[in-house]
Write a sequence for this structure.
């Protein structure tokens, strides 16, 4: 590293490539040094000698010197070997074209012979019929890939679990919908009961007018759920009706569902094995001919690569036709072998055709082919039907998940609405009871004055204590107990936020005067009363005091979401289509 540092100092103004090499070498040295120090500190724990105590590094031999005599020796070089006369070059080009034509013609013959073999064997259903007889049945590649995809996704046996998911999601949506409707119905019943109890004094709007939009959306969801249930029934019926068809896809391996060639039950001469053996032998010979054709094609290419007649062309004088004929004759032997191979293949194919006819007659091959084609068609139809049902089930699952989110948002809006209505209900009950208490106190004071005026002064009854508080009037249809201290018993109703029994009297809210100081004439209609600062900011919406628009009070609670836009997105599908 010290030597590298000195080299960098002395290398000012040199080429950038040289500096890059020095920097790269220095980086590698630092990496090696860090690794060596880490290994020594953790593993070897050896003493590191001082750098000054080490000997100087010997110079590295970068190149091997060569004597000048060897460099200048030209006795072994052919300095003008690449210089060829123009006539020789033209003759060489012509010869090359002749060789290329021979090779191209022979290669086309070999390729054509291989294609003829493939087509003829396909027509005779070989060697598939032999493999089927031995139990090695194969399925077409495209059909096999489709079956594997179906089995990976669960197959027909997994459709039942997906149908159960549909049922569970439908049940959850129905329960959510019923719970939301029960919340609204309970609030409407409470409002109607208070309206019946207080009569015209209960001035807030009816629940049905405020929840009309929400109820319409719930009705829409209920209609969609009913349609979805009908679609689920169609899917279940489709699964039950088509399961016998699709059950073939559950067989593993799928080849076990394919028919196989069986030996005849009764044989007259017992030569089935001999027929099969002869056919197998012919197929092996045909395979050997195919391998031989591949070898002949490679020999042609190798011969062309080694064929170099340039020295002969340069040495010759006059016409080169005789030389061409002599050199082209080298390829005659390979061409003859190719021709013999093609002839032998034709004869062997005729022999295989005759043997296959005999094989088909003995093993009833036509019936096997027909049953195999039927099985292929059944597998293809089962795959198509499975994909159709799977698509419908996925649409149903997506529909129920989306609907569940929409119903959940509506339920949350209903909860917010009911909470706001409960706060309004409590405040209105307190206000009505306060008005009734003030009215009864004024009536009692007026009756006492008239009674005292009609009797002599010595017979008048003693005046009540200065701080006595008259009893509050009971609500209509109730007993004489105060309405705020013990509510009237009502079946299936619990007043929200009930007052605390036995609590000390509190100052009336909203700046109203104390009942003992309320001196409003008994027959004068009550003035328009403003409820003051509401406990739930913003609860006075457009349905309260519509003739007196007032700005909304800011507060920590959101605006009542009674007219919020629908959260349920439109869903388009063949089976699940909302109204």
């Amino acid at each position: 590293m010290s030597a590298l540092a000195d080299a960098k100092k002395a290398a000012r103004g040199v080429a950038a490539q040289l500096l890059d090499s020095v920097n790269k070498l220095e980086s590698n040295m630092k990496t090696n040094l860090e690794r060596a120090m880490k290994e020594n500190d953790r593993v070897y724990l050896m003493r590191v000698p001082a750098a000054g105590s080490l000997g100087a590094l010997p110079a590295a031999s970068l190149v091997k010197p060569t004597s000048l005599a060897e460099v200048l020796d030209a006795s072994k070089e052919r300095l003008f070997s690449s210089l060829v006369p123009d006539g020789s070059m033209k003759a060489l080009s012509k010869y090359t074209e002749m060789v290329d034509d021979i090779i191209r013609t022979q290669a086309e013959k070999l390729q054509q012979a291989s294609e003829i073999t493939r087509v003829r064997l396909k027509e005779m259903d070989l060697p598939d019929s032999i493999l089927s007889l031995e139990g090695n049945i194969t399925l077409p590649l495209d059909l096999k890939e489709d079956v594997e995809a179906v089995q990976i996704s669960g197959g027909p046996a997994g459709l039942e679990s997906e149908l159960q998911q549909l049922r569970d999601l439908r049940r959850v949506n129905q329960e959510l919908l019923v719970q939301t409707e029960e919340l609204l119905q309970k609030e409407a019943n409470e409002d109607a009961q208070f309206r019946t109890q207080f009569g015209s004094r209960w001035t807030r709007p009816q629940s049905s007018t405020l929840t009309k939009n929400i109820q319409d959306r719930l009705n829409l969801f209920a209609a969609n759920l009913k349609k979805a249930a009908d679609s689920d029934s169609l899917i279940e019926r489709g699964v039950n009706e088509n399961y016998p068809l699709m059950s073939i896809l559950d067989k593993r391996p799928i080849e076990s569902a394919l028919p196989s060639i069986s030996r005849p039950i009764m044989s007259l001469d017992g030569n089935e094995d001999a027929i099969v053996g002869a056919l197998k032998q012919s197929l092996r010979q045909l395979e050997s001919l195919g391998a031989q054709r591949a070898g002949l094609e490679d020999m042609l290419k190798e011969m062309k690569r080694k064929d170099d007649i340039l020295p002969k062309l340069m040495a010759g004088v006059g016409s080169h036709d005789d030389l061409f004929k002599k050199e082209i004759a080298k390829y005659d032997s390979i061409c003859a072998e190719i021709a013999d191979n093609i002839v032998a293949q034709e004869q062997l194919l005729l022999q295989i055709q005759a043997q296959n006819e005999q094989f088909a007659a003995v093993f009833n091959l036509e019936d096997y082919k027909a049953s195999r084609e039927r099985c292929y068609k059944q597998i293809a139809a089962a795959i198509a039907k499975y994909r159709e049902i799977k698509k419908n089930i996925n649409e149903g699952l997506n529909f129920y998940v989306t609907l569940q989110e929409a119903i959940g948002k509506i339920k949350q809006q209903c909860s917010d609405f009911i909470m706001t209505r409960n706060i309004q209900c409590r405040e209105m009950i307190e206000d009505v009871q306060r008005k009734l208490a003030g009215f009864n106190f004024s009536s009692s004071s007026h009756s006492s004055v008239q009674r005292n005026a009609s009797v002599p002064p010595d017979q008048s009854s003693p005046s009540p204590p200065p701080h006595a508080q008259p009893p509050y009037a009971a609500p209509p249809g109730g007993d004489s107990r105060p309405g705020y201290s013990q509510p009237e018993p009502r079946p299936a109703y619990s007043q929200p936020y009930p007052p605390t029994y036995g609590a000390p009297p509190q100052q009336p809210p909203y700046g109203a005067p104390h009942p003992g100081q309320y001196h409003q004439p008994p027959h004068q209609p009550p003035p328009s009363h403003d409820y003051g600062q509401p406990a739930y900011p913003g609860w006075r919406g457009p349905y309260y005091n519509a003739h007196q628009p007032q700005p909304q009070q800011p507060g920590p609670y959101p605006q009542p979401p009674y007219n919020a836009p629908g959260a349920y997105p439109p869903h388009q599908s063949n089976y699940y289509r909302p109204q």
